[in-house]
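Why Methylated-DNA--protein-cysteine methyltransferase? Reviewers of the renewal asked for a concrete example.
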Amino acid sequence: MAYLTRYLDSPIGTLVLRADDSALREILFVEAPEAVADASPILDAACAQLTAYFAGELMQFDLPLGGEGTEFQRSVWGALTTIPYGETCSYADIAHKIDNPKSVRAVGMANGKNPLSIVVPCHRVIGSSGKLTGYAGGLSRKEWLLAHEAAHSDYRLV
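Here is what the prediction returned.
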């Protein structure tokens, strides 16, 4: 299926957004945008909400999401959406949240395959030691996102 596409410049790099008529399917970091700006109410809403997020004016996204993955991956991504803005949790916390406490490594793998960066906040998952761990967009982006949320919420990084 061909998706509608839009590019968005952000403080941490260019994002490519892809959607179909029913849901947002991908938000990924890219090196350089292409000259594409498909008409889509979902992409319009996603760009507006991401712009407000980066301005510190939006703490919760309200978009139809349709990231493609296995049932397990979708359960992990669903759990990610429950992590409050400005807070973090561990991979073990997510494994417990999906009632599969022995799946910590699999949670990490699913987290890394999240197709909806920022909106499905995989950047809010950190190691059980409290240290930042992998992020598909790069650790510097993860650090920026967490600091951005800390600056716009009552939560502060320790």
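The two ends are 44 Å apart (CA to CA). This is the kind of structural detail the renewal will allow us to pursue systematically.
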